[in-house]
Design a protein that fits this description.
Helix content of chain B: 40-55%
Strand order of the largest sheet of chain A: 1-2
Strand content of chain B: 15-25%
Number of helices of chain A: 10
Oligomer: heterodimer
Order of helices and strands of chain B: EEEHEEEHHHHEHEHEEH
Strand content of chain A: under 5%
CATH superfamily of chain A: MetI-like
CATH class of chain A: Mainly Alpha
Largest interface: A-B, 34 and 35 residues
CATH topology of the domain at 2-75 and 153-262 in chain B: Rossmann fold
Shape of chain A: globular
Structural class of chain B: alpha/beta
Distance between the termini of chain A: 21 Å
Radius of gyration of chain B: 19 Å
Largest sheet of chain B: 6 strands, mixed
């Protein structure tokens, strides 16, 4: 029997099924670096294309070429302005994300285990989840003002619903076979819950958190555009008022890079710390 | 040692009730390899679940060593067909076996030697650090066996355990299972729909009719030396006899299935 290593490839936080033959990671000498080389080449070509199109085709005021964007970025980097905005936005995202995830996991587990609670609360959840964080901005401002609290609330709101739904699904999908097997082996009800159901639900919880993280990133920007005096969204808003397209692009690029980096970090963390909990064997 | 008397199981939903099992009487002896053989959907898995204590009977009784069965018990361990679902994917081979020992509060010093013993018995000794997702189907079932045996039950309840394996692996698992059974002297209740499998393995076969109202239509004693050869005339005749026995139920099932298709 071929022995396939289930070591994390760092490519995915999705649960690892059975015995996959992943060709994307490639083990041959050329295969190993292929993805990185291709990505770099692709980005460089895109940058080149952008530079050419902005210089010769498009209005450089509407779409500033990359070099102009970099020129605008340098003073922002040197003065530390960008880092200040980034850290302000990140703190807001992280506070909302962690509190929302914690509350979401707790309620998700409760809804998954206590049938009555689920039947009572699910209709409410099912209605409220359609209120995007952006939709909640006006009321958040009235409730909490334009300070930090309103941002924490908005990110919490967005994260919470996503994590609850995924967590409940994960708890329900803990195979009854596995719970019965544990029962036969002598585990108590509490042990079955803590040592079998919860670990079985982890892949689903992680998936929920990853989606919620992306959503949090997208939610903080409108919140900062409409109701803040600091952060990347505020930077976007301010630059727009001053018609500083270059600076707008700097902010947009910052969002791309930041979102990408945070997601990669999340995946890396999950692959390292939660490796074994992310295995699952597909249930026929 | 496992006594079933007058057992029936009825599932009711609103006005409708479905009588899955009716009038089951069977006594399974200590150290016996007992097979429940019947077509799919005849309720043999239901019966096994009741023996395990996961479901209560609607009437009648199940006693294990004279004590009524009300839930999962130390002496009875169930073994599932879907190893992927039954095993703990976040624990490696060794930890899966350790789980039961921890749950049963076996003294720490003894745990390692018990794990060694059973992993060697099933031939997974050199795969301790692997995770279930890295094992083949046959290896996963062997891990399940080791895990179940480690808590030293008296009775192994097996629900079509090799159904998901390919035919060659299944044959191998038959020898593995028989070797372990002969070595450990456990009682085995083995559910299957495969006549050949039942004949190869069992001391006694309880042939079940198809549901609803399934019952054991015949008890057959298999008094032949193991390993048994399917090409042996006696064995072949037994196969034909059992097939004939099941023919009316198979025909009835055919009719039922074709009726639903037409509708």
């Amino acid at each position: 029997m071929s022995q396939v290593s289930a070591q994390p490839t760092g490519q995915s936080s999705l649960p690892k099924q059975g015995r996959t033959n992943s060709r994307a990671g490639g083990r041959s000498s050329s295969g190993r670096f292929r993805p990185i080389l291709l990505s770099t080449a692709s980005l460089l070509i895109a940058l080149l294309l952008w530079q050419l199109l902005s210089t010769f085709v498009f209005n450089p005021f509407l779409i500033p070429p990359p070099l102009a964007v970099i020129r605008a970025a340098i003073p922002m980097l040197l003065s530390g302005e960008i880092f200040a905005d980034v850290s302000i936005s990140m703190v807001r995202v992280l506070v909302g994300f962690f509190t929302g995830s914690l509350a979401g996991i707790v309620l998700g587990v409760l809804l998954g285990r206590v049938r009555l609670l689920h039947d009572l609360l699910d209709p409410i959840v099912e209605l409220l989840r359609y209120l995007s964080p952006t939709a909640m901005i006006p009321i958040a401002v009235i409730w909490f003002g334009i300070g930090e609290m309103s941002k924490y609330f908005l990110i919490f709101w967005g994260t919470f619903f996503i994590v609850v739904v995924n967590t409940t699904a994960g708890v329900w999908r803990a195979p009854i076979t596995r719970q019965r097997a544990a029962e036969c082996l002598g585990a108590s009800r509490l042990e079955i819950f803590a040592l079998v159901v919860i670990p079985s639900a982890v892949p689903y919880i992680v998936t929920g958190m990853r989606v919620a993280m992306a959503s949090s990133f997208m939610s903080i920007i409108p919140a900062e555009i409409l109701a803040a005096d600091s952060g990347i969204g505020y930077l976007l808003q301010k630059s727009s008022l001053l018609l500083q397209t270059n600076r707008i692009f700097v902010a947009l690029l910052t969002i791309c890079i930041l979102g990408f980096a945070v997601d990669r970090l999340f995946r890396f963390f999950v692959d390292r710390v939660l490796t074994r909990y992310m295995f699952y064997i597909a249930i026929a | 040692m496992l006594q079933v008397a007058g057992l029936s199981k009825i599932y009711s939903a609103g006005d409708h009730s479905y009588v899955a099992l009716e009038g089951i009487d069977v006594a399974i002896n200590k150290g016996e390899f007992f097979c429940l053989l019947g077509p799919s959907g005849c309720g043999k898995s239901t019966l096994l679940n009741i023996l395990a204590g996961f479901e209560p009977p609607s009437s009648g009784s199940v006693t294990s060593n004279g004590v009524g069965v009300t839930g999962a018990g130390r002496e009875r361990v169930m073994f599932f067909q879907d190893a992927g679902a039954a095993l703990f994917p976040w624990l490696n081979v060794e930890e899966n076996v350790r789980f039961g020992l921890r749950a049963r509060k076996v003294p720490r010093q003894e745990r390692d030697s018990i794990i060694d013993k059973y992993l060697k018995m099933v031939g997974l000794d050199h795969h301790r650090d692997k995770f279930p997702s890295q094992l083949s189907g046959g290896m996963r079932q062997r891990l399940q066996i080791a895990r179940a045996l480690a808590v030293e039950p008296e009775i192994l309840l097996m629900d079509e355990p090799f159904g998901a394996l390919d035919a060659l692996t299944r044959r191998n698992m038959h020898s593995v299972l028989l070797a372990i059974w002969q070595r450990t002297g456990k009682t085995v209740v083995f559910v299957t729909h495969d006549i050949a499998e039942a004949i190869l393995l069992a001391d006694r076969i309880g042939v079940m009719s198809a549901g609803p109202r399934a019952s054991i239509i015949k008890m057959l004693e298999i008094d032949m030396q193991r390993p048994r050869d399917l090409t042996d005339p006696k064995v072949a005749q037994l196969f034909r006899d059992i097939e004939t026995l099941l023919a009316p139920d198979m025909a009835r099932l055919e009719q039922l299935n074709s009726m639903t298709v037409e509708n």
